[in-house]
Amino acid sequence: MVVVHKELSGEWKSLDYLGAFRVRLGIRRNQYRVEPGLYKLGNPQKESPVLVTANYKLTVDIVRRAVKGLDLWILVLDTKGINVWCAAGKGTFGTDELINRIGQVELGEIVSHRTLILPQLGAPGMTPVEVKRATGFSITYGPVEAIDIPDYIKAGHKASEKMRRKVYSPSERFNVALTHFSQGLLAVLIISAVFVLLDIVIGYKSGFQINKSLSANVIIAISSLITGSFLANLLLPLLPGRAFSLKGLFIGIVFSGIFLFYLFNVLPDHSVLYSGGKILFLLAFIVYQVLNLTGSSTYTSLSGVRKEMAVTIPLSLTAVVISLILIITGGFIL
Amino acid sequence: MTYMKNVTTLEYNRDLCSGCGFCTTVCPHEVFKMDNRKAAIVDKDNCMECGACMMNCPTGAIAVDKGVGCAYAVIVSKLRGSEEISCDCGGGECEEESSSGGCC
Fold first, then answer.
1. First-residue to last-residue Cα distance in chain B
2. Among B68, B78, B84, the residue to mutate for chain A (most A Cβ within 10 A)
């Protein structure tokens, strides 16, 4: 049987850019997939290097663009559309899948050498001795970032110290924030709607102005999302403390100061307790968002996250309860 | 950027080390360095417990409670009552949970 290998290009088309932007907004990210299997890039021969990657389309796109102009084989594993690092953590970018895929595409028949280049961040899923035993192929780890692959190959399959370290660059933090922002929009919608409804209920006797209430509540809710996603993640190294919750608390307090003042100004009829209750609720929301930034950061550990959550979750829930008490007391009782 | 101090579950037994250097290669945060033909831990607090060193160590000299440093994953596991903390931001089967998730 002649196996026809699909070809990959090193170029991005407009659809690729659109797709990358869409998944960064978090829209149908899990369906952004490439069919697993062996692909050709350029005109690979029996001696050409074999790169291994995940079947998240954005991952494949970044790899093929990075190695544009080289002749390579690209073995795409079935990671259910998840990027290399996350899939390695889950084990889907793992030993079993690699062994199976090598057998399925009959890689041993196609190339004459017995070396695979894996992304370094795929290492948490791999046991090289088992792969070697089952398939005869040796695993070597390429650089962390796909962009360094050409230099890695040129240097005789050697990565510099710098290529081995994972940093968390401002542009990565921006992209992550974009995803978090887009995923928080529904929460903002709900919070704003509830705040406006509360304003209507407490203000229906006096001169209630829907425009003012609507704009003020949407502004504070959306600002809390921007603070908890973009501001927090871009300022991450500058915010005090090591725990993400602490960083979130810090930026949340700054937010609270500014927007409490704002609320007093635009809705002066509302009591201090009532407006303060809303802001306290949003402060807890900001801390929660920043806590959740741990998952997409590049350096947090499970033990550390557990430790900070043990303090943060009870405190945040208490803050939410207090905020509700303040809103009810300030708006409906006093 | 460094995360919390003195929390990692990373353990290393120098007596078992064969000196292959895989751990220094795979660690994305320079926790290991080669020292006198064996690996040595140089910055334990940089460890993010990804498990790469343990998985790739051919002699079992490294142990770590491997997991994802993701608060959302911890919350989801708690709510589901599952012991394992894994990144569930995808995989098709868990589409609904993942749509609101933070990680990956």
1. 19
2. B68
